From TrEMBL:
Name of the featured protein: Serine/threonine protein phosphatase 2A regulatory subunit
One of the protein's GO biological processes: signal transduction
Highest taxon in the source lineage: Eukaryota
Ranges annotated as biased composition (Polar residues): 433-446
InterPro entries in UniProt: ARM-like, ARM-type_fold, PP2A_B56
Free-text function comment from the UniProt entry: The B regulatory subunit might modulate substrate selectivity and catalytic activity, and also might direct the localization of the catalytic enzyme to a particular subcellular compartment.
PANTHER family reported in the protein's UniProt record: SERINE/THREONINE PROTEIN PHOSPHATASE 2A PP2A REGULATORY SUBUNIT B (PTHR10257), SERINE_THREONINE PROTEIN PHOSPHATASE 2A REGULATORY SUBUNIT (PTHR10257:SF51)
Chief location category: cytoplasm
Keywords, alphabetical: Cytoplasm
SUPFAM superfamilies named among the record's database cross-references: ARM repeat
Record-level Gene Ontology MF annotations: protein phosphatase regulator activity
Length: 446
């Protein structure tokens, strides 16, 4: 039990309805202090009465904060943040398990570790959430207690293995960001630092998806034109988040943030697409399918000028994905032509892109093992052919000529190697006459 606790949990306190209005705040402070008592939840048989008294008291605090109809005093703010700190910022979190961030392993199949104290922690979170959200909480006063140190400790909790806790933290931090404008740059910087450590040092963190979800909402509210600080955040933190092997655990939220940036400022499309290409997965097919899905969302928000800046390296990669032996990768790449906006961008740059794409179309038509991929490939060929049949035939002819030229080159190379082998064999025969191994005379020296 915490040494600073003023009211022990076996001392009954009256209900709020049983005291006069002038005494309610003092009673509230007493009840908050009672809830500073901590109990061992690893042993379900210990302190049963005290635990239940604390649980009921916390529920009363939730009701009081929710129904408050006067500004909270500074004393109340101080006591609430103290109680929240004692309960939430616990030092004995269960040791995190090793993050099995291995390609091909679905990390989300692991059962999360649930905190045994959740029956109390949940209500503490609820009290704090209602307090932060309340119109009776004056941000100018509360910022003295919900300060940088408090926010950093709150952010540390995002690494909790318990998804219920991370969900509360997400909602609370978002509320703090909205209410305490003075803390906004600090919160963004602190999240940025968590991402840096995750990307470049640990590749282990349980709360990346939740932090990105908060950021998705923050980015949505950015004013235009975007500040340089925000663009740097995109380049230095968000785009490199595609690198970790466990990206599947937060990719949906990451993709939303990235797309928000491009929708806010279409000039960022080239930067984003080149960033995706930089971190493009080489051996992880499921990750490649995700990248192709994100690419479609980004291209949906991309305008012609930005598309033209990156289309050549982009379509070289799309061609490689179309030829993937993993049918879902090939399918996802070919599905890009189902998007009217993307198809329109391609048609406007037809003469640059068809020569890049055509060899991949031809290889799929001839050799791909999957019938659905071959069928989709024929559909894409038809789109190109219908758009400009003369140029399409020109590309077919060019491909056939290059293929013929390659066959001739291969044939010449093969003939050259054969000739070199024959020459080597002949030379070997001259150096080693029959019956005289290693070229030495069979006669003994006199």
């Amino acid at each position: 039990m915490n040494g600073a606790v003023l009211y022990h949990s076996n001392e009954p306190l009256p209900a709020f309805k049983d005291v006069v209005a002038s005494e309610k705040q003092n009673l509230f402070v007493k009840k908050v202090n009672l809830c500073c008592a901590l109990y061992d939840f690893t042993d379900p048989t210990k302190n049963l009465k005290e635990k239940e008294v604390k649980r009921q008291t916390l529920m009363e605090l939730v009701d009081y904060v929710t129904s408050a109809n006067g500004k909270f005093s500074e004393v109340v703010m101080q006591e609430i943040t103290k109680m929240v700190s004692i309960n939430l910022f616990r030092s004995s979190n269960p040791a995190p398990r090793e993050n099995k961030a291995i390609e091909g392993v679905d990390l989300e199949e692991d059962e999360p570790l649930m905190d045994p104290a959740w029956s109390h922690l949940q209500i503490v979170y609820e009290v704090f959430l209602r307090f932060v959200a309340s119109q009776e909480t004056d941000a100018k006063l509360a910022k003295r207690y919900i300060d940088h140190s408090f926010i950093l400790r709150l952010l540390d909790l995002f690494d909790s293995e318990d998804p219920r806790e991370r969900d509360y933290l997400k909602t609370i931090l978002h509320r703090i960001y909205g209410k305490f404008m003075v803390h906004r740059p600090f919160i963004r910087k602190a999240i940025n630092n968590i991402f840096y450590r995750f990307i470049f040092e640990t590749e282990k963190h349980n709360g990346i998806a939740e932090l990105l979800e908060i950021l998705g909402s923050i980015i949505n509210g950015f004013a235009l034109p975007l500040k340089e600080e925000h663009k740097l955040f995109l380049v230095r933190a968000l785009i490199p988040l595609h690198k970790p092997k466990c990206v599947s655990m937060y990719h949906q939220q990451l993709s939303y943030c990235i797309t928000q940036f491009v929708e806010k400022d279409c000039k960022l499309a080239d930067t984003v697409i080149r960033g995706l290409l930089k971190y493009w997965p080489v051996t992880n097919s499921s990750k490649e399918v995700m990248f192709l899905g994100e690419l479609e969302e980004v291209l949906e928000a991309t305008q012609l000028a930005e598309f033209q800046r990156c289309m050549v390296p982009l379509f070289r990669q799309i061609a490689r994905s179309m030829n993937s032996s993993h049918f879902q990768v090939a399918e996802r790449a070919l599905f890009l032509w189902n998007n009217d906006h993307i198809e329109n961008l391609i048609k406007q740059n037809y003469k640059v892109l068809l020569p890049i794409i055509y060899p991949a179309l031809e290889r799929n038509t001839r050799n791909h093992w999957n019938q659905a991929v071959r069928s989709l490939t024929l559909n894409v060929r038809k789109i190109f052919s219908d758009h400009d049949s003369a140029f399409f035939e020109e590309c077919v002819q060019r491909f056939n000529d290059e293929e013929l030229k390659q066959e001739e080159t291969d044939s010449k190379r093969e003939a050259l190697w054969k000739r070199l082998e024959e020459m080597a064999t002949s030379k070997l025969g001259e150096n080693h006459p029959s019956g005289t191994p290693n070229g030495k005379s069979s006669q003994a020296a006199g």
